[in-house]
Design a protein that fits this description.
Largest sheet of chain A: 6 strands, mixed
Strand content of chain A: 15-25%
CATH architecture of the largest domain in chain A: 3-Layer(aba) Sandwich
Number of domains of chain B: 4
Strand order of the largest sheet of chain A: 11-10-9-12-13-14
Number of strands of chain A: 14
Largest interface: A-B, 64 and 89 residues
Structural class of chain A: alpha/beta
Radius of gyration of chain A: 29 Å
Number of strands of chain B: 10
Helix content of chain B: 40-55%
CATH superfamily of the largest domain in chain A: von Willebrand factor, type A domain
Oligomer: heterodimer
Shape of chain A: extended
Mean pLDDT of chain A: 75
Shape of chain B: globular
């Protein structure tokens, strides 16, 4: 191993927290999340910043170059130190860094897959769910007169006569012969029918705050990116619930703020109805995800949830994922109930649970959810 | 040394261009050490760059961190290193394999500028030109310590030293005192045989005899005598010491290997300091000469003009949020060149108050070339800007200062006034943008260490100050104090405070030096 590889793996070990716990406090993580609509994505560059006596950057300001009048803005100061313009000449302010890169969602998923060593998923029922579709977009040299393509025919004739030296610009007569004839024709395209569905369920009861929803948002973005790279077409459905559940669109899912009690079974019931109606489990790869702070209304309701999961949803799904976000109010009881009633250690168990403490736990949680390759 | 790099010999085509460029550079009056070009792959380039341009450094995670950043930004197509040159004799410069010919020519012309600067600029005069060997020796010494005392222990101590490595006196190498010479590392005999007494007077002995001649009892006696002497002296050091690392090396209670590691970190900090002190000049000088050699001396082929212009403008493009040293240096050298060619200097010029006459001033002095060579010999960035930044230049380059506006949560342009811009620039270059911190008294409260921060209006960053004090404590092993100032929110005046760390907790209280 070359020397730099040794230093590099030492650095990675420190960042992963395997060694040198006392350095961990200086690690700053670049954000993993890009702008959801746009293409720019930040690739994290973890940095360990050794403490030094240095000037406070907010007081310092600096010198820049370009057009502008006093009072013109140079950008927000709310960003991380690395993004601020105040990188004075002498190289102070080595703060957190992140690279901004333009990448497509596919590349993103690939990066994610590589970074987390995610296994490829073996879809079920894939082959049968391809539909064929014919479209008149092609051209052939034989066919019925009713489908004759005049423009292409005369173009071909013109090309031929020029090539043979027969074309006279002063007397531009073009006569198609049999070989020049062109007819419209169809081409068959295989349309992979979307055969995977992701059902996101989120607890929006009073105890789920903005920070918790942000975690759900980032996590589901990445899960979507990964599943999209694995299936040709993918459908996503969103369910929010407090004491009752309802289906919503994506925007509402991420932005709604409700309050009230929590009946998790309502969401599971709705999800099961959805599956029965629209996604026969024999043909569909079904991925329900449920995010909650683990605070359920009553033990009877929890019992109902467990029955629903055990009898219906889990057998129908490729994998059922439960993510528990830590919040100030949530008791986290639901996760304990799941653990009591399912043998999560069993390799055949398709229920996956994950606890997400804060933003930095997202990566580990994604890995737990998608690491099995189901 | 170089075999280790697995570098490729310079291909014939490049070698021919190198000869040609070298000849032109010498003809223009550039004076450089022998320069050896190596072509390396991008991966190797990233590795060498992570090691600050040297093939062998001591094992440390921070090189791995630098490597990851370089490799990632290369992999995602965000940046690549075109060129790397180190200040040694002979000079080694690395070219990136697979670059276009025009890039390689540009880099070679650029490198000769740097080499000339390394050799002739005063601020580099005290650097170790055999640094390749020195760094490799340091590396093997530290590897040996890691074998002896454990990887973790040594690494942790290096981290502590690095966290203080900006506390050196950047002007020390240029002062003619016997103390400026770095301490020679001592033998590696285990400390328990010798004790930590490096500063104690010792009897002369060969290294292998040392432990028998300078016995523990002899050293203990010397130590108690020295302690006695120290107590008698009221304040130690007698005058504030800016080379904090040197002071710690001499006075802190360290084991021998720790002292040597500290010395290595300190020496390397001193070696790299001039490059930071002359960044603007050094890059400006190199850009000035690559421009000249490429475009005026026929190195650039017509077919390459567009690519060259693209590369060059990418390098010297102005940045809004900070100063681009390449651009500032290049433009300033060009400005000096032109001013001294036209005789725009001296009393008559400065006292002329008619703008039009000043604008069209041309005495045909033609001293530009000689002047820029003089400038590159004597100045560093601070004096360079102090002397040659003019109001005209400042306006032409559209320089401005910016400030944090907390209410608007934005960085805003504060002023385009020459005075403001210049004073901001100079203050940022003073002491290389580092706070000036000195050892004031190591006998504070009886054996506690007191550092003072020379306050110039900008307070220290609190989130960094406290952990740094902790690291200082790790070396001093007695309570440590920092005297500094703090600005209250919304108030202009600063109050003086003392931040302390006593081994378990931080404390802060109002304080005044007597």
């Amino acid at each position: 191993m070359s020397r730099i590889k040794q230093d590099h793996s030492r650095f990675r070990d420190i960042v992963r927290g395997k060694v040198r716990d006392n350095l961990k406090q200086y690690i700053s993580n670049g954000e993993l999340m890009g702008k959801q609509g746009g293409k720019a994505v930040k690739i994290p560059l973890p940095q360990i910043d050794l403490p030094r006596f240095r000037f406070s950057s907010n007081e310092q300001g600096g010198v820049g170059q370009g057009q502008g009048q006093p009072g013109d803005s140079l950008g927000s100061n709310q960003g991380q130190p690395g993004e601020e313009p105040g990188q004075g000449e002498a190289g102070q302010n080595d703060g957190e860094k992140a690279l901004e890169v333009e990448v497509s969602i596919d590349e993103l998923a690939e990066i994610l897959g590589e970074a987390l060593a995610l296994p490829k998923i073996e879809p079920k029922g894939g082959a049968t769910v391809v539909s064929q579709k014919d479209k008149y977009t092609s051209i052939r040299s034989v066919g019925p007169d009713s489908l004759k393509h005049f423009k292409r025919t005369y173009k071909q004739a013109l090309r031929r006569s020029i090539a043979m030296g027969q074309f006279n610009p002063k007397n531009p007569v073009v006569l198609p012969i049999k070989d020049d004839m062109r007819y419209r024709s169809w081409s068959t395209s295989e349309q992979p029918q979307s055969n995977a569905v992701v059902i996101y369920m989120m607890d929006v009861s009073g105890s789920m705050g903005e920070a918790q929803k942000e975690i759900v948002r980032i996590e589901s973005f990445w899960i979507n990116a990964w599943l999209k790279s694995q299936y040709k077409g993918i459908e996503t459905r969103y369910i929010i619930h407090d004491a009752s559940a309802k289906e919503v669109d994506e925007h509402t899912f991420f932005h709604t703020r409700e309050s009230g009690g929590t009946m998790i079974s309502s969401a599971y019931k709705l999800a099961w109805e959805m599956i029965q109606q629209d996604y026969p489990p024999s043909d569909w790869n079904i991925y329900p995800f449920h995010f909650s702070d683990g605070d359920n209304w009553s033990t009877e309701d929890t019992k109902e949830c467990l029955d629903l999961l055990n009898d219906h949803i889990i057998p129908a799904s490729n994998q059922f994922s439960y993510g528990q976000v830590e919040s100030h109010y949530g008791s986290g009881q639901f996760l304990r109930d799941l653990k009591k009633n399912f043998n999560l250690e069993d390799a055949d168990c398709t229920l996956v649970c994950s606890e997400i403490k804060d933003k930095s736990g997202i990566i580990d949680s994604i890995k737990e959810f998608l690491g099995a390759g189901r | 040394m170089i075999e280790y790099l697995h570098v490729k010999a310079l291909p014939k085509e490049l070698a021919d261009w190198r000869d040609q460029i070298e000849e032109i550079a010498a003809d223009e009056g550039l004076d450089f050490f022998k320069t050896i070009f190596e072509v390396v792959s991008y991966d190797k380039m990233n590795e060498i760059a992570a090691y600050d341009g040297f093939p062998t450094r001591y094992p440390h995670w921070r090189f791995g961190m630098a490597y990851e950043q370089l490799a990632k930004s290369y992999a995602y197509g965000l940046s690549k290193i075109y060129e790397l040159v180190i200040n040694t004799d002979p000079c080694y410069a690395y070219l990136l394999e697979g670059n276009e010919l025009v890039d390689q020519k540009l880099v070679m012309a650029h490198v000769y500028g740097h080499c000339d600067f390394f050799k002739n600029n005063f601020w580099f005069s005290q650097t170790d030109r055999k640094m390749l060997d020195t760094l490799a020796n340091n590396a093997s010494r530290i590897r040996r310590y890691m074998d002896l005392y454990g990887y973790g222990a040594v690494e942790q101590f290096i981290d502590v030293c690095l966290s203080l490595d900006n506390l050196i006196d950047f002007h020390r190498p240029y002062r003619p005192t016997e103390r400026q010479q770095a301490l020679k590392p001592q033998s590696d005999l285990p400390d328990e045989l010798i004790g930590a007494g490096m500063e104690l007077p010792r009897l002369k002995a060969k290294e292998y005899m040392d432990e028998f001649v300078n016995t523990d009892s002899y050293l203990d006696e010397q130590r108690s005598r020295a302690d006695q002497a120290k107590k008698e002296q009221a304040r130690h050091p007698a005058s504030p010491e800016r080379d904090v690392l040197y002071f710690l090396m001499e006075n802190a209670n360290l084991t021998r290997w720790q002292r040597n590691v500290l010395e290595i970190i300190r020496a390397e900090a001193y070696y790299f300091a001039p490059q930071r002190m002359t960044k603007i000049m050094n890059e400006g000088w190199a850009c000035f000469w690559h421009t000249h050699i490429m475009t005026q001396r026929g190195i650039l082929d017509q077919s390459e003009v567009i690519d060259y212009a693209d590369r060059h403008s990418g390098t010297v493009a102005p940045h809004k949020g900070r100063i681009n040293p390449y651009r500032l240096g290049l433009e300033l050298f060009k400005d000096i060149f032109e001013r001294w060619n036209k005789g725009k200097f001296g009393r008559a010029y400065y006292e002329c108050d008619r703008l039009a006459q000043k604008e069209n001033w041309d005495t045909g002095a033609m001293q530009g070339k000689q002047k820029i060579f003089d400038v590159r010999r004597h100045h560093n960035d601070l004096t360079f800007l102090d002397e040659f930044l003019t109001p005209e230049f400042c306006a032409k380059q559209q320089l401005f200062t910016f400030e944090n506006n907390p209410r608007a949560r934005q960085w805003q342009i504060a002023s385009t006034e020459f005075k403001e811009v210049k004073s901001k620039m100079l203050s940022q270059l003073t002491n290389m943008g580092q706070p000036i911190i000195e050892v004031y008294d190591a006998n504070f409260n009886g054996g506690e260490l007191l550092l003072t921060h020379q306050f110039e209006g900008v307070a220290l960053d609190d989130t960094y100050t406290k952990p740094t004090l902790k690291n200082l404590y790790a070396i001093w092993k007695r309570p440590v104090h920092l005297f500094t100032y703090r600005k209250e929110k919304g108030r202009e005046d600063a109050k003086s405070i003392l931040i302390s760390y006593n081994g378990s907790s931080h404390e802060e209280k109002p304080f005044d030096l007597e």
